[in-house]
């Protein structure tokens, strides 16, 4: 039996299109079209993207290990602070009962072997080595270093003369032609000599003397050899400088009437603290430097800008001097002022406790050339000025 063909359904779109024209069912009310509304519509703001919300910081939980480390550190510093406080009080009480002489330089005989190890860390923290270098690099010509100690400045010397220019562009002779080291402690002088020999094995114009700087100091090795060759009847070979002479550490033998040799540069670092009469000592250094162009270079430590720090230095001064041979509470500025030397440059660091001075002798008013020439002849140099002064080295005389 054949089924009748199924009626085709209209397409969906056609059905929807014709649905509006479909007849209304009975009983349904007729739809009345709504009149358009005349109400004012609010103006909408232009579209803006919402700002990105800032992410709230994540709270971190306390690390137990970090908390333990902080607790241990707090305990350590509190314990160490208590130790320092107790030690300070004990040292102050000890200082009040100590009878320490002004001259404490003999302490260095005992501390010489361990001196460098004791001061290395403190000088590294305070960058004293950099200040030593800046000072010593200024040395020129025939140099004298008094209170040389263990030779902590040895590595900073610019040895050998050369032509150069100063900071103003003016031509000058730079570098050291010779270096003479002086200290009262033979143990320290020997350490300084060994340092110099290792650092500058080929430099021969260096002399090391164990003596007081207030006593007559021999001239540089080449000047001494030149003087001997002119005033002795020995063979010409005696005028040569040998290694043993230039590296001698014995006490020199000089006549009491011999005039002091005047060096081009005199250096002292950390030495005024150990002397019984630092004012007279510094005044004497003024007689050892060439009066026209010579300089005295000082790097010292002493009193501070601040009263509270000066009180600490005063309270511990006697105990520190008794152990280390250093009166660290001296007023270096006042010592320099009383010495009568002319201050070319001065500077302070470390709350005022570290002092730097560039000094030179004050020129006498009305000093004539005739008196200057007489002074040179009395010293035995006179016509040899070209040999003595660093600024005229290398000038050949006919």
Automatic annotation (TrEMBL):
Cited InterPro entries: Methyltransf_Superfamily, SAM-dependent_MTases_sf
Secretion signal span: none
Transmembrane segments: 66-86
Low complexity composition bias: residue spans: 234-248
Region named Disordered: 1-59, 233-255
Keyword Transmembrane helix included in the entry's annotation: yes
Gene Ontology MF: a single term: methyltransferase activity
Record keywords, A-Z: Membrane, Transmembrane, Transmembrane helix
Protein name: Ubiquinone/menaquinone biosynthesis methyltransferase
Organism: [Emmonsia] crescens
